């Protein structure tokens, strides 16, 4: 990731992300606070509505209590022919208490309809009602409601609209059902059914709405079975609340409030169970109406965040682009310098810190280039000096021994052999004194062969040799005097004290961009301890040769007298990943590999 992206990412992570987290947390806390505040307000409102409904129903309880106390229902039920008793008839002889009660019923505007069940099965009407047929008493006795009324023993039982339409009809009225007793003996004599209109109930829901911020609240009266028995808007009356609300609720358990979908809209639903009644007041408020302020805050927050992002992007493009672009350019040039290109320069226009940085980079590259050229010159001089030292090491003893051998041949009148020895010695001297550092492999092989022929004359029957050099590789360039020191090491050390004929095998091949020269002998070899006496060179393990002999002990670079010079010259000339590699084992022999780069392979790869 480049510097520009890092700075932009840091801005997003350290500023934008915490800002978003803060906004989300604030939104959640605000939403939770609004929900709790609404829940408390709604609980107070539902309790107030419950109290008001209870007051309305309690007033009707007092009216029917007065009727029972004045025995008006008792006298109507105890007539000889109750079916002919009609409290609406002007001809009915009523005592003063009965007339007062009749007047009270008529003067109560909420009463819609009233009648009495005689326990003998007769129905006594207090008021008549059009298009309504009273359920026969025998059918009523079969209803679970009958036993519930009897078990209440005179306590009023209130029925909401749509709970028992077969008994109360389909009009949205509340019905009181209670057992009538004879006051002298407390004997059950009948059942009173009184229906009241919902005017007062509607007035309660209309006048006791919650605060103005909750004007979108809808109220319902739901029984414990989940039936919506009263809806001020008359939209959902008679329906199960589970058909419009996703969450399943257990009614009849005090107050509860939660968030759920109601009529496919996210809403806050609050439920309060009415004391002494099997009904529940339900308040439903749209969450959108409650969270208007929170949504406004969220919109402002999103707008501010987007503005910050736009500012960050603008800053990144306008200001950071120049800074990071200049730094990135310097980094690219540094990589070119790492690759060996010391001619790169950065444009150092300007007067700020970037100008100072670019100028410093250019000066540093100039210094590195100057030092590199100086080191390269010194290394070249060192290599040439070591080559001259190596040549000086070879000439004295080798020339002396060779001339001594030629003298012996001359004494023995071996003219042809003298001529051949002189010819071989001339080849060696001609190649050794050349000023060229690299020569074709063909000339290096000619030099080696002349050296081997001279040594074979000196050490007759000590060894033989084989040169396995492919013709197509003879034009490869190698450092001169590379193979001769390796072969000399085999003769002087590998064949020392052997009782069999030695053999030297010289070969070469190419492998993955490397040119490998190998000298192998069947001499006495070296022990692991002898190998450990030599120093090692760091190499890439992937560059190890695939031609090592199994079971041999490996010393990756042996630095002897001649070998050290050859290894150092190869490393200085070609790089640290090239040099000499030795495999050796006692009584098995030694393999010396000279690894240098394959120039032709590199040319093919570059093309």
First and last CA, distance: 32 Å
- The proportion of residues in beta strands is 15-25%
Summarize the main sheet: 6 strands, mixed
Structural class: alpha+beta
Which radius of gyration do the C-alpha atoms yield?
Answer: 59 Å
As laid out across the biggest beta sheet, the strand order is 12-14-15-18-17-16
The helix content, as a percent range, equals 40-55%
- Count of alpha and pi helical runs: 16
Count of extended strands: 18
Shape: rod-shaped
Low-confidence runs: 80-98, 210-214, 536-560
Summed over residues and divided by their number, the pLDDT gives a mean of: 78
Structural key phrases:
single chain, 19% strand, alpha+beta, 16 helices, 607 residues, 5-stranded antiparallel beta sheet
Structure explained in plain terms:
This protein has helices at residues 3-69, 72-77, 96-107, 137-141, 144-152, 165-168, 199-207, 287-290, 292-338, 353-411, 415-432, 441-458, 483-494, 528-532, 561-574, 599-606, and strands spanning 111-118, 123-125, 157-159, 174-182, 187-196, 218-223, 228-230, 255-262, 265-273, 279-286, 438-440, 463-468, 477-479, 502-511, 514-521, 553-555, 579-585, 589-597. 49% of the residues lie in helices and 19% in strands. The chain is rod-shaped, with a radius of gyration of 59 Å. The strands form four sheets. The protein has a six-stranded mixed sheet with strand order 12-14-15-18-17-16. Strands 2-1-5-4-3 form a five-stranded antiparallel sheet. Strands 7-6-10-9-8 form a five-stranded antiparallel sheet. Helix 1 (3-69) runs antiparallel to helix 9 and helix 11 (415-432) crosses helix 12. The protein has 607 residues and is α+β, with helices and mostly antiparallel strands.
